[in-house]
From TrEMBL:
Span of domain Major facilitator superfamily (MFS) profile: 28-478
GO molecular function, one term: carbohydrate:proton symporter activity
PANTHER family per the UniProt record, alphabetical: MAJOR FACILITATOR SUPERFAMILY (MFS) PROFILE DOMAIN-CONTAINING PROTEIN-RELATED (PTHR48022:SF34), PLASTIDIC GLUCOSE TRANSPORTER 4 (PTHR48022)
Keyword Transport belongs to the record: yes
Classification of source organism: Eukaryota, Fungi, Dikarya, Basidiomycota, Agaricomycotina
Catalytic activity: myo-inositol(out) + H(+)(out) = myo-inositol(in) + H(+)(in)
Name under which the protein is recorded: Quinate transporter
Signal peptide: none
Cellular component annotations (GO), alphabetically ordered: membrane
Keyword Methyltransferase: no
Basic and acidic residues bias: start-end ranges: 529-541
Family: Belongs to the major facilitator superfamily. Sugar transporter (TC 2.A.1.1) family.
Localization terms from the record: Membrane
PROSITE patterns the record matches: MFS (PS50850), SUGAR_TRANSPORT_2 (PS00217)
Amino acid sequence: MGLNLFNIKEDPARPSPREIYNWRVYVLAIAASWGSAAFGYDSAFIGGTLGLTSFKNDFGIDSTSSTGLQARIVSTFQAGCFFGAILIYFFNELYGRRRSLLLAGTVFNVGVILQLCSAHRIGMLYAGRALAGLGIGSSSLVIPQYISECAPAGIRGGLIGMFEILLQIGTVFGFWINYGVNKNMAATRSQWQIPVAIQFIPINLMIIIMYFMIETPRWLVLKGREEQALKNLTWLRQLPADHSYIQNEMAEYRAQLEHEMHITNGTGLGAIIRESFSPQIRSRIFIGCGLQLAQNTTGINAINYFSPSIFEAIGFSGTSVGLLATGVYGLVKTAFSTFSFIVLVDRFGRRPLLLIGSAGCILSLYYLSGFSSITHSFSDSATGGPASRAAIAMIYIYAMFYATSWNLSWIVCAEIFPTRVRSFCLVLTTCWQWLGQFIVVYSTPYMIEHITYGTFLFFGSCTVIAFFAIWLFLPETKGVSLENMDLLFEKRGLAWVKRREYDVVMEARRSGTVTEVSSQSDASGVAGEPEKEERNLVEMA
């Protein structure tokens, strides 16, 4: 009996067995995604914790040192994440996705211990933040990859979306924990240590459950361990080894691997780098890196990490009131993220949600910029009234549109690359995510202090650029198997042309009428000749 929780409408001409939508794939996705809950919790709790009186007292933070110190404490974590994504690559390739997640969780735990023991020792706090970042950066590379390599194509978006759902749940807890300790605890050391210690919960849930999970069949095939791959795949799909669906999926793994080996004619890191920057894959790297960078330049992490300052600038005054508003903001993001991944992403696709969500973010950010410019709210307290209430509403509207759209960047990056080079390509895209976060969280305190309303204007304008880039260059990947991504991205033309021609090929394959389809247009819309590489790919598929 299947558990198609995402209510996918499948192609009636090629239905999948209902057994593949079973409880095991959901448990696997949730187990791995507890690591992203730790990531989300950090992005939420640290901004509020920096504002607690007890934390300021223990680390000697005053108004003159606040801006620079906050920027360094927060951004040290992002720096650790950047290098964690790079360093885990080699372990991930040699020992697999599951063991990589266990290692990442262990490193994160060491970082949290250092943070807890760091009172009056700012250097130890930096070290703890950096080590925690190493762990989160490592897991952020592996979690989407692990889930994508285990998920059935029909619910892949929703399952990878567990990464973001758990991230947003962690965010909510981070916001509300700070509100709780601020309201109910005296300004002693325990007040800031409790939010830090809670980081142990999600990461150790990941470690415990992942200990009982399996390695991905695709990685096992990549390592030549086909017997174990078949065993793991039958466990995941709850189908016998001789079932046609299992046999076809294993055949697709082998065919894709042989195709990639044929293209590069070699093994080792050098061959993987050459394949990654080949014309067939290079454009996907640009798309993935661009999406991860653009996700940060929408301004989301500026609000996540420095929400008390942002809310104060548009009318909330007082630490407690600012933390309450931040907690509600986290609830809005979580609710709409969950709705998006369970209901929308595998029904309507990635591209429409990104375009609609970007438009909503742009309008919200431009309103906030105009409001702050006219009322001088960054330097003077907002006076209330309809315009001020609308500004407060715009923060929540922004959260709604962001949560239903830009969280999808992790999904797109996890699914568009071929198996053999997926880890290396994800190192690049994930590093751009953490580089973008580092730039944004380090710059935001200075932007708020010096360019005030220009902060919203900058992020809104960056989102305009991202909107047009998605419209032109990102084809829809909904329903495309990982092994058929080559067929989608090797089409010529702009985004909508690629998907249209891909659908023509797949329809021809289903009907058995043709085995060769020519490219209808190139990027400029001019008719092109059939491509030899495309013919080979279609025939092999």
